[in-house]
Amino acid sequence: MNALSLPTWIIHISSVLEWTLAIWLIWIYAKLSQNLAWRGLAIAMFPALVSAMCACTWHFFDNAISLGWLVTVQATTTLLGNVAMAIAAYFIWKQAQVST
Asked: How far apart are CA 39 and CA 34, in angstroms?
C-alpha cells in the first residue's frame, strides 16, 4: 500500500464512494421523476465505477506487475463508461425535447 500517500488514498476512496452515491441518487431521481432516461445514466455510470475500483486495487497491491492487466481493464471500462454516459446524456436530452 506504499504506492500512494495517505492523502491520495483518501481522495481515491472518497471518489469511489462519491461516485457510488451519485449513481444511487440518480437512480432515486429516475424513480421519483418517472423518467427512465435518468435510470439509463445511472447504469451507464457503472463502468466508470469499475474503472475506479481497478485503479484502487492495483494501487493497493503496490502497482504489482502481475496485476498489470488491471490497467487494461481500467482503460477499457473508462472508455466504455464515457461512451455509455454520452449516449445516456443524449437520451436525457431527447427526453427533455419531447417533454417541452
From this structure: 9
The torsion defined by the Cα of 40, 28, 56 and 4, in degrees rounded to 10, comes to 130
Amino acid letter, residue 14: S
Q: Cβ distance 91 to 37 under 8 Å?
A: yes
Cα angle for residues 79, 44, 28 (degrees, 5° grid):
155
Measured N-to-C along each axis, helices 6-33 and 36-44 cross at an angle, to the nearest 10 degrees, of: 160
C-alpha cell at position 67: 496485476
For 8, other C-beta atoms within 10 Å of its C-beta total: 11
- Cell numbers found for residue 82: 464515457
Q: Residue-wise over 15-30: b if at least 16 C-beta within 10 A, else e?
A: eeeebeeebeebbeeb
CA 43 from centre of chain:
9
pLDDT of 14-45, one tens digit each?
999 999 999 999 999 999 999 999 999 999 99
